[in-house]
Amino acid sequence: MAALAEEQTEVVIKPDPEGPQALPATQPGDCPGEGSGSSHNSSHNGGGGGSGGVAASSAGGDGGTPKPAVVPQAAAVAAAGTAAPGGAAGASAATAEGIASQDRQTLLAVLQFLRRSNLRESEEILRREARLLEEAAGAGALGEADGPGTEAAIALLSRVTAAAGPTGPGPGSGSGPGPGPGACPASAGSGAIGASTGNSGAASATAAPAKVGVVAVEDQPDVSAVLSAYNQQGDPAMYEEYYSGLKHFIECSLDCHRAELSQLFYPLFVHMYLELVYNQHENEAKSFFEKFHGDQECYYQDDLRVLSSLTKKEHMKGNETMLDFRTSKFVLRISRDSYQLLKRHLQEKQNNQIWNIVQEHLYIDIFDGMPRSKQQIDAMVGSLAGEAKREANKAKVFFGLLKEPEIEVPLDDEDEEGENEEGKPKKKKPKKDSMGSKSKKQDPNAPPQNRIPLPELKDSDKLDKIMNMKETTKRVRLGPDCLPSICFYTFLNAYQGLTAVDVTDDSSLIAGGFADSTVRVWSVTPKKLRSVKTATDLSLIDKESDDVLERIMDEKTASELKILYGHSGPVYGASFSPDRNYLLSSSEDGTVRLWSLQTFTCLVGYKGHNYPVWDTQFSPYGYYFVSGGHDRVARLWATDHYQPLRIFAGHLADVNCTRFHPNSNYVATGSADRTVRLWDVLNGNCVRIFTGHKGPIHSLAFSPNGRFLATGATDGRVLLWDIGHGLMVGELKGHTDTVCSLKFSRDGEILASGSMDNTVRLWDAIKAFEDLETDDFTTATGHINLPENSQDLLLGTYMTKSTPVVHLHFTRRNLVLAAGAYSPQ
C-alpha cells in the first residue's frame, strides 16, 4: 500500500465556473468500485458484479470486497481538511522544489469545494496550514499564476498525502454514500483521453465514497450517491453538438458497423439529458430532449415518456426510473471492430463528454467475429438495462426431469378398467409400460435427485399418480392434423373484476381471484365442494371404517361455490397445490395466503413483500412456492416456514409472473424491466437472463421436457428460449395485445397462448423447436437467426365474443380449458 500511495497521479483540471470541482482520476484499478471486468472488458470498463450484474445502489461496490483506495492528493486534502487537521499539523513539512501548477490548482479546488459546502472552519484550517490566508482570499479564479504561497501549498499536499493516505476518514468526515463531487473517479480507460474533465465515477461513486472524506448532504442515501455521478460539468451548449456529431459519424459509417453502433444512441441520449437536468440547465435539457427523442427506437417510448417528466433536479431524487438507469450499467454487445472504430472517432474528436459516459454508465460486451445485423440486434435488445452480458448465460443448468418414483399399478383396477373398456387391456398395457419406462431412465441433464429436498409421496399422491397414468393412456396425441377441443369458462357478471384464475391438475376445481379481495372456488365436476365436519361431530365417527374419508365430510355444507374471505386488496395470483388440498392467493395487500380446501379457511398469511404481490405459484412437487411483486424481488417459501427461504433480487422493475421449472430446481420470473430471469432454488443465483421483449412480461410456460421456456408480454409476441444454451430460438407473432397466458400440451406438441385481444392461438411446438441452430459460435456471440415462420407455426386462432383470455390449462387428456371474464364493449 505504501508503494502504491507514492505513485503520482497526473491531473489536468479545467476552470469550473458553475458546479463543484471533481476530484482527479486515480490510476486504473485503484478505486474500490472497479472490478477486473471480463477479459475483453477490463481496459475500458469496470467489471460488473452482484447477481445478474446489478451494481449495489449504495455502498456495496460492484460485487467483491472493496480494495483499499489509493487516495489521490486532492482527496487526501479533502479528508484531512474536513476531518483530521491535527494529524496534518503534526507532520513535518517537506521541501518542495519545481512545483507544478496543477498541484496548486488542486489545492484551490479543494478550498473552493469546502467553501461551497459551508465548511468554513475546515477551510480556515487548510488556509492556515498552507499559509494562504491573505493571498487566496481574494483569488477566486482557479487558473491563477503561481504565488508566494505555492510552496507551502505543495508542502501541505505532500504532508497530508503521507498522513491521510492509507487510513480511512477521520471522525468528522462523511461516512456512508455522500453525494460529494466524485469520490474516487473511474479510471480513464486506456489513457488516450485522460481525465481532463475531472469526471466523477459511476460505479465508484456508488461503491465506497466513505474512503474519501466527503460530507454527506441530507438526502436518501442511495439516491444521493447515485446522483453524485452527474456532478461532472461539460459546456451545456455543446451537448447537442456532441450528440449530433456522434450521430452523423454512426450514420455515415459502413452498414456492417452502423447497426451495432446505433445501440449507443438511446443510453447516451438518456444520460446526457439527465446530466443537463442534474446540473440545472433546464432549457438546454428541454431543447436536447425535443431535438433527439424522436430518433430513439419505438420500444423505448414508454421510458422516454417518464424521462420527459424529469425536468428539474428535484424530480430526480427518489425517481425509480432514474435510479434504475443509474444503478445498473446499460449493456451493449458490440464486435471488436465496431468498438475500435468508435474509440478512434471519440479520441480524434476529443469528445470527452461522450467518452466519459461510455466509460461510466455503459458496459460494452466485446466479442470477436462478424458484427451483428440490424435484425439480429433488434431481436435481443429492448430491456431496461440493454442486453444480458454473455457471461450471465454461461452457467450450467440442469434442465432435465427428475426420475419418477416407481409405482405399481394394482391388478384389480386393471381388470375393472378392462371390463369397462370391453376387453381392450392388451392394447393398453404396452402403452402403459412404455410410459413407465420413459420415466425410469435417468435424464443426463437432470439434477441429482437429492439436490434440493423434496417432500415424500403420501399414499393419496400415489393413488393420484395411478389415476394420472390411466388418464394418460386415453390422452389424445395432438399435432397439426389433430388439434385439441377448447372448453371456455366465461365468468359472467364479474363486476368484482376477475384478476387471477387457476385450475387444478386433474381439472376438477377452478379458483378465481377478484378485485373485491375475495377468492372464489368452483367445482366443475358433478362432485360438490364440502367442508370437514365440526370437532364434536368428528368425535362421533368410527375411525376404523373403510369410508372414513367420506364420513368426515359434512353433506350440509355441499355447494358448487365457496368464497374465501381474508385479503384486504385485489387478488392478483392464485395457485392450487398438486394434491388439491391447498390453495395459494397473492394480493395487493402485500400478503400471500394459504387456504385449506378441506375447511375452506385461511391457514397462514405469509408477510414478506411490502407492496402488492402480483403472482404466486406452487412447486410441481408441492411444499415450496414462489411469489413476485412490486418490490422487484421474487421470494421462495415453504408452506411450513413463515419467512422466505430465498430472495431472488436482480430485476429492475416489478416481478409480474413466476413459474417453477418442472424439476422444481429452478424458478423463472418475468418482469416489467422486459427481462426474464431463471434462478437456481438451491443457492439463489441468477443463472439465465433473457432479453428481447419490448414490453413488460406477463406470462411464462416451461415445456414438459424442461428444455424450453415460452414467454409472453405486452408487445403481443411470444418468444421461445433454449434454457440449456441460454438462447432465443423462436418468435411467434400474431397476437395484437398482451399475452396473458401460455401453456404447453401434456406431451409438448402444441403451445396455446391466450391474450387480451380475446383470442386463443395454437402453435406447432414440435416444428418450432426442431433443427435448432445452437452451435458454439451462436452461443458465444449471440448471432441468432430467427426464422420468419410464425404463420407456418400457427395452427389455429379461436376468437371469443368479448372475453380476454386470462388463463389456459390442458387436461390430462389434452383438452384445452380457457378462462376469462366477459367484458361488455
What can you see in these coordinates?
This protein has 825 residues and is an alpha+beta fold. Among the domains are: 236-372, TFIID subunit TAF5, NTD2 domain (Serine Threonine Protein Phosphatase 5, Tetratricopeptide repeat, Alpha Horseshoe); 486-820, Methylamine Dehydrogenase, Chain H (7 Propeller). It is 29% helix and 20% strand. The chain contains 27 helices and 29 strands. It has a four-stranded antiparallel β-sheet with strand order 4-5-6-7, with no helix packed on it. Strands 8-9-10-11 form a four-stranded antiparallel β-sheet, with no helix packed on it. A four-stranded antiparallel β-sheet has the order 12-13-14-15, with no helix packed on it. A hairpin with a 3-residue loop joins strand 9 and strand 10 (591-596). Helix 2 packs parallel to helix 4, helix 2 (73-82) packs across helix 7 and helix 12 packs across helix 18. The longest helix is centred in the N-terminal third of the chain and has 16 residues, at 101-116. It is globular. The termini are far apart. Residues 54-67 have a biased composition (Low complexity). Keywords: Nucleus, Repeat, Transcription, Transcription regulation, WD repeat. Its main location: nucleus. WD repeats lie at residues 491-532, 564-599, 606-637, 648-689, 690-723, 732-764. GO terms for molecular function: identical protein binding; RNA polymerase II general transcription initiation factor activity.
